[in-house]
Design a protein that fits this description.
Oligomer: single chain
Number of helices: 10
Strand order of the largest sheet: 3-4-2-5-1-6-7-8
Shape: globular
Bound molecules: adenosine-5'-triphosphate, magnesium ion
Structural class: alpha/beta
Length: 259
Amino acid sequence: MKISICGKGGSGKSTVVALLANEALKRGYQVLVVDSDESNSGLFRMFDFDHPPIPLMELVGGKKGLKQKMGQPSVLSKANIQTTQIPGGYLLQKDGLKLIAIGKILQSLEGCACPMGGLSREFLKKLDLAEDELAVVDMEAGVEHFGRGVETSIDSVLIVVEPPLESVNVGQKIHELASEMDIKNVWAVLNKVPTAEIAARLKAELQERYIEVVGCIYFDADIFNSSIEGKIPVNGAAVREIKEVMDSILSRAGMPTSR
Ligand SMILES: Nc1ncnc2c1ncn2[C@@H]1O[C@H](COP(=O)(O)OP(=O)(O)OP(=O)(O)O)[C@@H](O)[C@H]1O
Ligand SMILES: [Mg+2]
């Protein structure tokens, strides 16, 4: 399964990526986290690495070299890429979790992020997962990645929605774009919800828009407080709540809930 975690900026995409990845590991899945967000670079901290992976963009000579070097021999020019073929440094590993990053905007005036989108799209297309392997993609905020076709080979999209209406509206747009691309599974998870009443209202808003909700993560002060160090807690309410989300996703995708 290749699942991309999408939503409005700040809705909690990276947090949900980390919660889901940790939960999938506990269930015996191999997990590859793909950092496809070209702006934020802190995902590695959520997984307790002390430095980020070297972006795959460097493997093709950086943004400038991309066009010329895409066809030259490297793991990225293969027709199929298994995670075991990605060179060390570009892929960080800890306790069964693997982390890679596509590329980051490093300098002002370096041009748009389209090459990262192209590389994300091509990498995800070629990524050949083992049967017990999940790829969890931390997407950039908003909807531009759909324009770049990053989701072409994604089979599932999880939209993170928090209470503000704008988050619901972005979620609706993502749902429309993903459906247009014939992505098989498109679901939403509620996040940063303060009360059960707000959860019910948010769920109703999404259901009115024909968006299926697979779970709810309440506002969790521990998550918010840990974010000052760029980390997330390894236990607590959200870690329990993500279990229901994981069960729903795996069973709807026809995959075993544990390995
Ligand atoms: N359930 C939650 N309870 C409390 N705080 C949360 C929760 N989920 C996320 N947050 C906080 O919200 C902020 C944004 O979360 P996160 O970075 O995961 O969002 P994002 O969608 O990945 O943002 P970006 O669009 O910048 O990539 C962080 O401070 C995080 O700790
Ligand atoms: Mg993020």
